[in-house]
Specification:
This protein is of the alpha/beta class and about 160 residues long. It has helices at about 10-25, 35-45, 55-60, 60-70, 85-135, 140-160, and strands at about 5-10, 30, 50-55, 75-80. The chain has 2 domains: about 5-110, Rossmann fold (3-Layer(aba) Sandwich), CATH 3.40.50; about 110-160. The chain is about 70% helix and about 10% strand. Strands 2-1-3-4 form a 4-stranded parallel sheet, sandwiched between helices. Helix 2 packs parallel to helix 4 (about 60-70). It is elongated.
């Protein structure tokens, strides 16, 4: 299940937008009518996106910076709720969530590639050392070392796949 969207805007504007997001995108959302309750919500939970009313953002830039710092991995969109209609906001939300999903997919792919590279390097060292030990091993150690070489080779083959 996707994390909810946090709307930090005056109550009248956020109700219409919350309804539009629920209807158009089937997304859960949480409303906060001011920066203080928005900040408290950010500290309590994880959100997929934060929509911040431009009027609230411009009224106190320092408090707005604190909101951005506490948003975690959730992108923050500053939107003029008074001038933007629900359809426009839904488009912006859809686009921001799509970008976030792409960024997360790229980050996962990079982390996977990095982990595989590190494992391959360690595994190559393990395989080399076990093959060298096998050459120098006494007759009683050979079966165990062969088994170790086979396990390391099998793991290397799995990482290649």
């Amino acid at each position: 299940m996707q994390s909810p969207i946090l709307l930090i805007a005056p109550e009248a504007a956020s109700i219409v937008i919350t309804d539009a997001l629920c209807h158009e995108l089937n997304l859960p959302s949480v409303r906060a009518s001011n920066r203080r309750t928005g900040l408290a919500a950010l500290r309590r939970g994880e959100y997929s996106l934060v929509l911040l009313d431009e009027g609230l953002a411009e009224a106190n830039p320092v408090a707005t910076d604190i909101l951005f710092q506490n948003a975690g991995t959730a992108p923050v969109l500053e939107i003029n709720f008074a001038r933007s209609g629900p359809a426009r906001i839904v488009r912006q939300v859809r686009s921001a969530l799509h970008r976030r999903a792409q960024d997360q997919a790229r980050a996962r792919a990079a982390a996977t590639a990095s982990l595989q590279s590190e494992l391959r390097a360690s595994l190559s060292g393990l395989l080399l050392e076990s093959e060298l030990a096998l050459r120098e091993a006494g007759p009683e150690q050979v079966p165990k070392l062969r088994h170790l070489v086979r396990l390391a080779d099998d793991l290397r083959n799995r990482l290649r796949a």
